[in-house]
Amino acid sequence: MKTIFRAAFLCIFISIFSIYYSVSQQPPISNDALVDIKTVTKEKKSTEDPGKNNNLIVRPTSGLSTWIGKTTSKLNETIGAPDRIDKTEYGYDWWIYNKDLTNYRMFAVSNEKIVSVIGAGANAEIEPFHIGQNLQNVFPQGSFESTVVINWKNTIYRFELSEGDFVNRPLIKLDDIYAQIYIDNFTKKVTAIRFLNKSTLVLEKPYELTYTGVLEEVPAPTDEEWGAIQKGYEKEIVDFTNVIRNFYNLPILAEIPELSVVSRFHSQDMFDNKFFSHQSSDEKKLADRLNAAQIPFAKAGENIAAKYVDPVAAVEGWLNSTSHREALLDPEYSHIGVGIVRKLYTQNFIQQVDLLQHE
Question: What's the predicted TM-score (pTM) here?
Answer without folding.
Answer: 0.86
